[in-house]
């Protein structure tokens, strides 16, 4: 009788062990589900933040393009108006010279406030034209032709992308760097010691800011390599802030 009672308990003990195993497995599965949910939530948040950053970058680029378009439109308008004023002044040097001086001042102001691409050389070209006109080396008519050519050069810069070299000020130090110009919207740089960054407009004017984010540095390195190979079309993801 005792043996029979002990034997009858064995199936019950087996069922209890099975239920305990299933319970432990269920707890483990619930833990895995919670971990997956947490990972999914984190991934969604990262994607949301990335999307928000991309939207912000797009807005910044669009705003920069609009500023450049306004600047280009103003430059074209100034050129047309100054040419018309020069035409009306005709061959009279006394009437033509003030028109040219005004046009030179307007162009120099545009260069000084715009993207810092070879700014000193561009302003020097305007100043030299004015100097030669003032000294009598150039007649007003010839100075006008040279000035209109400078206006055309400025308009051409808004349409060109390319890789150049120029001296930039990084911190307090002048550095001869490679610069990648996108129209007159963006200007990125690469120093000889492989530092990357961009020109940014601040309340104190244009400044060069180094970019340290590893992913952005890799993107810029690829972009500069493509420009060096004369590859100027394609999809490039570039930073809009230093």
What structural keywords apply?
242 residues; alpha+beta; Four Helix Bundle (Hemerythrin (Met), subunit A); 5-stranded antiparallel beta sheet; disordered N terminus
Explain what you see.
The protein has helices at residues 2-89, 93-113, 119-135, 140-157, 214-228, and strands spanning 161-170, 173-182, 186-190, 196-202, 205-211. With 242 residues, it is α+β, with helices and mostly antiparallel strands. Among the domains are: 64-157, Four Helix Bundle (Hemerythrin (Met), subunit A) (Up-down Bundle), CATH 1.20.120; 161-228, no CATH class. It has a 5-stranded antiparallel sheet with strand order 1-2-3-4-5. Strand 2 and strand 3 (186-190) form a beta hairpin. Helix 1 (2-89) runs antiparallel to helix 2. The radius of gyration is 33 Å and the shape is elongated.
Which outline best applies?
elongated
Query: Would you state the CATH class of the domain at 64-157?
Result: Mainly Alpha
Strand content: 15-25%
Structural class: alpha+beta
Write the layout of secondary structure elements.
Layout: H1 2-89, H2 93-113, H3 119-135, H4 140-157, E1 161-170, E2 173-182, E3 186-190, E4 196-202, E5 205-211, H5 214-228
Antiparallel strand pairs: 1-2, 2-3, 3-4, 4-5
Helix pairs in contact: 1-2, 1-4, 2-3, 2-4, 3-4
Overview in brief:
With 242 residues, the chain is an alpha+beta fold. The chain has helices at residues 2-89, 93-113, 119-135, 140-157, 214-228, and strands at 161-170, 173-182, 186-190, 196-202, 205-211.
């Amino acid at each position: 009788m005792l043996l029979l009672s002990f034997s009858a308990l064995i199936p019950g003990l087996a069922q209890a062990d099975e239920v305990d195993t299933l319970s432990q497995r269920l707890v483990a599965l619930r833990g895995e589900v919670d971990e997956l949910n947490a990972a999914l939530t984190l991934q969604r948040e990262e994607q949301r933040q990335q999307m928000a950053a991309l939207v912000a970058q797009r807005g910044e680029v669009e705003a920069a393009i609009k500023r450049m378009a306004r600047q280009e439109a103003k430059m074209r308008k100034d050129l047309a108006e100054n040419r018309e004023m020069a035409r009306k002044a005709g061959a009279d040097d006394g009437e033509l010279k003030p028109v040219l001086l005004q046009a030179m001042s307007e162009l120099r102001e545009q260069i000084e406030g715009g993207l810092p691409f070879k700014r000193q050389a561009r302003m020097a070209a305007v100043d030299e034209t004015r100097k030669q006109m003032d000294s009598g080396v150039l007649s007003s008519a010839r100075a006008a032709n040279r000035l209109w050519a400078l206006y055309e050069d400025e308009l051409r810069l808004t349409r060109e992308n390319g890789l150049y070299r120029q001296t930039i000020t990084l911190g307090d130090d002048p550095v001869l760097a490679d610069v990648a110009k996108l129209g007159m919207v963006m200007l990125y740089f690469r120093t000889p010691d492989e530092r990357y960054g961009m020109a940014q407009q601040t309340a104190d004017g244009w400044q060069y800011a180094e970019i340290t984010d590893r992913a952005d540095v890799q993107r810029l390195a690829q972009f500069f390599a493509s420009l060096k190979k004369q590859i100027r079309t394609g999809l490039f993801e570039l930073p809009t802030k230093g």
